[in-house]
Amino acid sequence: MRPRRQLSMRYMQLFVDYIPIIFFIAAYFFKDIYFATAVLMATMPVILVLQWLITKKVNRIYLASTGLVLLLGGATLFFHNPTFLYWKPTVLNWVIACIFLGSQWVGEKPIVQRMMGHAAELDTAQWRILNQMWVVFFVFSGAVNLYVAYNFSEAFWVKFKLFGMLGLTLVFVVLQSIWLASAMKNPDTLPDDAESS
């Protein structure tokens, strides 16, 4: 029961993370990118405080995202240049990718094992592979964000922030679930020496 509850909390967190983006998109189509940026900067700290009041915990990724929005959103408004805001998802994703990658050498377990260890039983090598999958996903997501920002219209990028990023995340979650199901059915498919690598 507890693993299911924790998993549902993670999905709830994912939904909550997208609330400011929904406000951002609505504000953008109501007025413009600068008004939307101001709305985003106002919304994210409010959601952060509400999360803490409800759970008594602070989501570190959401906290970092809020900090980047305040920093790069502030630069967007000050310089009247949306390029700063365009870079926010990429910077966040690439920083997370570096943290996930570094966790393979710092600490006893990679981050993905700390996050999902209650819901899956994998050997050491498999946890490292899954962690690397997350690294690739975050690097890819950051790169796709820049590609869209610099090759499509501003309105398209704004919509991509919600629908595109959410779509990429859902596809990755599905692929990860398929891989996990296969890995847990075949725990002995990796050679013994892979465990110690």
Overall description:
The chain is built from 8 helices and no strands. With 197 residues, it is mainly α. The protein has one domain. Helix 3 runs antiparallel to helix 4. The two termini are 34 Å apart.
Q: Considering DSSP H and I runs of 4 or more, what fraction of the residues is helical?
A: over 70%
Distance between the termini: 34 Å
Tell me the radius of gyration: 18 Å
Main sheet attributes: strand count, strand direction, barrel closure: none
Any low-confidence stretches, pLDDT <50, length ≥5? 189-197
Q: Return the string of H and E elements.
A: HHHHHHHH
Mean pLDDT: 85
Shape: globular
The assigned structural class equals: mainly alpha
Q: What features would you highlight for this structure?
A:
disordered C terminus, 197 residues, mainly alpha
What's this entry about, in short?
82% of the residues lie in helices and 0% in strands. The chain has 197 residues and is mainly alpha-helical. The longest helix is centred in the C-terminal third of the chain and has 32 residues.
Layout of helices and strands:
Blueprint: H1 2-30, H2 33-55, H3 60-79, H4 83-102, H5 111-116, H6 124-151, H7 154-185, H8 192-195
Helix pairs in contact: 1-2, 1-7, 2-3, 3-4, 4-6, 6-7
